[in-house]
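Case study.
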Amino acid sequence: MFDFLQAVLDGILFGTTYSLIGIGFTLVFGVMHKINMAYAAASIGAAYLGLVTASVFKASSAWAVFGYSFVSGGVLGYFVYLICFHLIPLKNENATLMSTVGMLLLTDELISHATTGAPQNYPATLEDVMVRAGGLSVRGDLILVFCVSVACTAALLLLLYRTRLGLATRAVAQQPIAAQLCGIRVAQVNALTFVITGLLGGIAGALICSAVGSLSILLTGPLTVKGLIVTVIGGLGSVPGAIVAGLLVGGLENAFQHFRGVTERDMYVMLLLFAFLIFRPGGIFAKGRGRD
Amino acid sequence: MEFYYGLAQTIGIHTLLGLSAYIILLTGQMSMAQAAFYAIGAYASGMLTVLWGWHIVPAMFAGAGLGAAAAAAVGFPALRVKGLMLVIATLAFGEGVRLFFFNFDYQIQKGNVKVGPLGGEGFRQIRYFPENGWTSDQVMLFVWLFVILIMALLWWFDRSRYGSVLRAVGDDELAAQSVGINLTAVKVSAMTIGGAIAGLAGSLYAHYTTHIEHLAFGVLQSIFALAYPIIGGLASVFGTLAAVVFVQGILVEGLRFLGDWRNLLFGALIIVAMVVRPSGFLDAQMFRNFRRWFGAGRSDA
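After joint prediction, the assembly is written out as follows.
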């Protein structure tokens, strides 16, 4: 029983990274009604760029790598916006979605080319710390992942609900035309959304890589799928939903792994998604039918 | 010559895969699970011919039928909700199916070897064609027979009421709904036909390569399936064919000398194609131009 609780606890803590990725997907969806398929790949890309920049500046501490990943995440986010959304007419749904898929493949291949396909060691944080309570023990770096995720989410919610930029973002999300008529520069808000989600992705990428201990393009596929599942379970466009869904998926994933083994666990996560699609299509915090 | 037969078979199978995504795209939906239907068709027909000694044609139809059933099952809950939900649901479904085959063991003793799918090792020895003495040119003709059949079917759809309904839903859902078109029925039917075509392509693929494994049915394969019709354009089935010939014939085979760099090209090609021609290479305007150029030539003579 303790093993099981331990597994679920670890899963929930790791699930915060799914929440971060899910928030990135959901914010872009909320503001532009688009899915940015390249998001998880760009997050790992940012983590890699952070590693490279840190080694160029000879600052190999984990915190420096995190800082550089954060910044490169923002830059990459803007870059993705520029190429996949600015240059392509937004009305053309297929083209914008497909171009982000192209970006996903390109990012993957660029990383694999730069690293010659080998996993890169990623600096770990709080490696030796182990918190024990009752019979349960928790890895220090997972606690850090959890705390940083919570802090990022809090900062994001402050930004969204307490600043003028956040107001503009929510206005564009609700009614782009009305927002434009009120003098909000929609294109600028869209670009900023990408930069903000990119910054978030940079942090998420670095956290994930340091929790796993290495950086490899094998991470991007599962992260993309998990991030999107979290987005749907939380309700497309809902930030609180994505947070809760991330924890839920993380915890359940480890529970499935505990009972059915690692090769089968993701199958049950997919089944969970379908259960939500059928019984609760609007997500955890559904408020009736949204618009298409 | 063998090499060109092989290339023609690959192009044929990929054209079918692209067409399976094409009909779904006509309704304005994107399915990331084409590789899953392809896998279902491949495993099902392979098991039927190898384990139970069926003839290939009924096995292929069984594969197509199972692909169609899976597509309807995944399309129905997802299409009921929001358009973009389908992208995510099918992406997850595709990964789920791949993982299913990764865990799937079903082997029986045949002679002195064990045959059948074996988890991560895949399904070896799908030797229907060599066992029955088919030569590679016959296999190529067999593949292309189905390619032509499916292309003709979809080409005919475009000239029928059903095709107009598909495109009406794709162009403007609200307008289509307000003239009394049942959106869910149209989308799920397109999904089902797409699943059947992908299942058919999978059956051909399994028998052509003789060895299938879960890695061949990943997300990348689904992306290929979607990329062909989108790069080629949705104005006609020939756009998909042109894109497959370009990607498989020129990009994959013609640029072998680039080695690793070739992989970078595919992602970049998709982005460039979307920036330069967002509605595909052979779009409606291109077909109008063709008609004008060639039509004008005839009237002068």
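Observations recorded in class. The first strand of chain B starts at residue 108 and ends at 110. The CA atoms of residues 295 and 301 of chain B lie 10 Å apart. We will return to this complex in the next lecture.
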